[in-house]
Design brief:
- The chain is an alpha/beta fold.
- 62% of the residues lie in helices and 10% in strands.
- The protein has 26 helices and 16 strands.
- The strands form 5 sheets. The protein has a 4-stranded mixed sheet, covered by helices on one side. It has a 4-stranded antiparallel sheet with strand order 8-9-7-10.
- The longest helix has 53 residues.
Length: 698
């Protein structure tokens, strides 16, 4: 049995030994770098650390060359910081050795520094100083500055483009082109991209500071070494200058070469943004795309070789290589063209596949068409985020009505006027309106005239008097108690009411089956008992359509199935089953239509009208119909209108209460001229509901 404490520290056992965790190793490495800044280092250990620094730099460069896209190395700013810390720590360690032991000879700071100094300087410290200065200038002025500028511009453009890209992701999600998981993945990639280029802009300062520190360290080492050698160690001035310069330049080269390699890697990384594939694929594919350029290069090299005074051999070799690659590129292009022709001929011989009929017959369940003047509502978040509001609408309707609506497709439609939108349900126009995308819609709840400058209009959803006002008057409108909404909210409100009015058509067989499949496991036994022995899926679909047609939520599907099971014992009439289910939903219906004080307002039918409707029913079962004289119907309609108009002036919108037997038939009449009126039967009044009768239809 392993010791729990040791397991927690080591991260578990592997092969009889404890496996160190990566985060602990990384922390130990950082502490080691900081330790080098304080404690002296022996020459043999410095040689190993300098070799590690060079190997680490080469690894960074090779990784930057082979990655497909910059985000695959998103930790590069951190890597750059670690590499800079390593070089500065080694600079300090080598400085300590040079100043302390430089009088002992050119190997005082280790053999790596000695070898670099001797190889580059060739026993001439002036050459070494010049080479070191050139490397520093190339690194500091050219590569680092250029890479930092590219990262700065990329970060700026990435941040500027972020809102538009986020809008595109939201639009694709609302249109159903992508799912929620893919949308989250795209948003994460977008966020990482902007963060990466912003970090690269700051990380370039590490390399710049490293180069400046290298120049200062060389200057300090040379001056300090000469002073120590001549004053403290009694060395001749020439010998001290040669020895300490040799060591210092060697140290500087060992530090600057890895710095130059990392700077090149940084430049390669930020400069390949937007180019797919590894560096060599992108480079060779694009340079070899135009053989004319290679032929022109070969011709120019040949002309230069023929000019007097210029050595011919190097330029002829370059001309030959350019001509060779040009011929290879032409040959490759011909092969690709032949393969394309062969593929095209085979496609001609093959029978043309007809487009599947399913694609021709497919329709958009819900579609919002926008005139070109309303496109900023989708693309510009400052003018209202229509896609976000529609997404919230779908969620709200799912909570209120109990099933998820199909995806709403938003598209531009050039045949519409610029500021007009249209809503289509199953390709059939269900409503349209005209809005002003740069203005706000203002409405007075009291119905009186709006005392603000603007354009008088009608609210497109309910036809109420309204006015388009400038956004500058928003505060004035709120101060006067007006209701102010943005254009995107106008469209969303209109879409909400259209969906509620057509929800009966949106509840398809597939949606019904999906509701049954997604019920909790604890209710699956109920589903198995009711479907299909008591009622078929199609029958249940009709029952649910009857409920949502009167804006009754079907979220409590278990209670609905229980009501269906009870009613199916004595009838198979869908209308009667629906009425029984409504009785089971009495608590929900009373709560839904109660006013703010918790009271259910009622308007009742007189006994004469109850009897008149009961006597007008003819037929049995599914064939039962209402056969009432037209004059009697007109009298009933007029009485309903008069009563409800009087109550509306008092701010009341009560429920019409009928007996259970005639409720569906009363509803079928009233929905034709006053569809917003709620019709409930006496069986749907919960025993604990607080009721108040306001009037009676006589």
């Amino acid at each position: 049995m392993s010791d729990p404490a040791m397991t927690a520290i080591g991260g578990g056992k592997t092969g009889g030994g404890f496996r160190l965790r990566g985060d602990i190793l990384f922390a130990i490495g950082i502490m080691a770098i900081l330790t080098v800044l304080i404690l002296p280092m022996p020459a043999w250990l410095l040689d190993g650390c300098l070799a590690l620094s060079i190997a680490f730099s080469v690894l960074i460069l090779m990784t930057a060359l082979f990655i497909e896209k910059p985000l695959e190395l998103s930790a590069f700013p951190t890597i750059l910081l670690v590499a800079t810390m390593i070089r500065l720590a080694l600079n300090l360690a080598s400085t300590r050795l040079i100043l302390a032991n430089g009088h002992d000879g050119k190997d005082a700071a280790g053999h790596v520094i000695e070898a670099f100094g001797g190889f580059v300087m060739q026993d001439n410290f002036v050459i070494g100083i010049i080479v070191f200065a050139i490397l520093t200038i190339v690194n500091f002025v050219v590569i680092t500055k250029g890479a930092g500028r590219i990262a700065e511009v990329a970060a700026r453009f990435s941040l500027d483009a972020m809102p538009g890209k986020q809008m595109a992701i939201d639009a694709d999600l609302s249109a159903g082109l992508i799912n929620e998981h893919e949308a989250k993945s795209r948003r994460l990639t977008l966020e990482q991209e902007s963060t990466f280029f912003g970090s690269m802009d700051g990380a370039a300062k590490f390399v710049r500071g490293d180069a400046i520190a290298g120049i200062l360290i060389v200057f300090i080492n040379v001056i300090g070494g000469i002073i120590i050698g001549t004053v403290q160690k009694d060395m001749p001035l020439g010998e001290a200058a040669e020895t300490y310069t040799h060591l210092t330049i060697g140290d500087g080269l060992v530090s600057q070469i890895p710095a130059l390699i990392v700077s090149v890697a940084s430049g390669m990384l930020v400069s390949k943004a937007g180019v797919a594939g590894s560096a060599e694929k992108a480079l060779f594919a694009q340079l070899s795309k135009y053989p004319q350029a290679l032929w022109m290069s070969a011709g120019l090299m040949t002309v230069l070789a023929a000019m007097p005074g210029i050595p011919a051999m190097p330029f002829l070799v370059m001309a030959g290589l350019a001509a060779f690659f040009a011929r290879q590129t032409v040959a490759t292009a011909k092969k690709v063209e032949q393969l394309a022709i062969a593929a095209a001929e085979s496609d001609k011989k093959a029978p043309v596949a007809e487009e599947p009929i399913s694609k021709v017959l497919s329709i958009d369940i819900i579609r919002v068409e926008l005139g070109y003047g309303l496109l900023p509502l989708v693309n510009n978040p400052d003018k209202g985020k229509l896609t976000e509001q529609i997404k919230g609408l779908r969620r709200q309707l799912a909570e209120d009505m109990g099933f998820i609506l199909p995806a709403v497709r938003i598209m531009d439609y050039l045949q519409l006027p610029a500021n007009t939108y249209a809503v289509r349900i199953k390709e059939i126009e269900a409503g349209r309106g005209e809005i002003r995308p740069d203005m706000l819609l203002c409405m007075n709840p009291t119905g009186e005239r709006i005392e603000l400058p603007g354009e008088n209009t009608r609210e497109p959803t309910f036809g109420l008097p309204a006015m388009w006002i400038s956004p500058d008057y928003r505060e004035d409108a709120h101060f006067k108690g007006y209701t102010v909404v943005d254009p995107a909210t106008v469209i969303t409100t209109h879409l909400t009411e259209i969906i509620k009015d057509n929800m009966q058509d949106l509840l398809s067989y597939a949606e019904t089956q999906k509701l049954l499949d997604e019920m909790p496991q604890s209710h699956q036994k109920l589903v198995a008992d009711v479907i299909p022995s008591k009622v078929t899926v199609t029958g249940l679909q009709r029952i649910l359509q009857n409920l949502v047609g009167e804006r009754v939520s079907i979220r409590d599907l278990p209670t609905i199935l229980e009501g269906v099971a009870e009613a199916s014992a004595f009838t198979h009439n869908i209308t009667q089953i629906t009425e029984h289910v409504r009785g089971r939903l009495a608590r929900q219906l009373c709560d839904q239509h109660s006013n703010k004080t918790g009271v259910l307002p009622l308007v009742t039918l007189s006994g004469e009208w109850e009897q008149a409707f009961a006597e007008a029913l003819v037929g049995q079962g599914e064939d039962k119909q209402l056969a009432m004289a037209p004059s009697k119907l007109q009298q009933f309609i007029q009485s309903i209108r008069t009563t409800y108009e009087e109550l509306a002036m008092k701010g009341e919108n009560p429920v019409l209460l009928t007996s259970p037997g005639i409720r569906p038939y009363v509803r079928s009449i009233i929905e034709r001229f006053r569809p917003q009126t709620i019709i409930m039967s006496q069986n749907e009044i919960h025993p604990r509901a607080k009721i108040r009768t306001f009037a009676q239809i006589t």
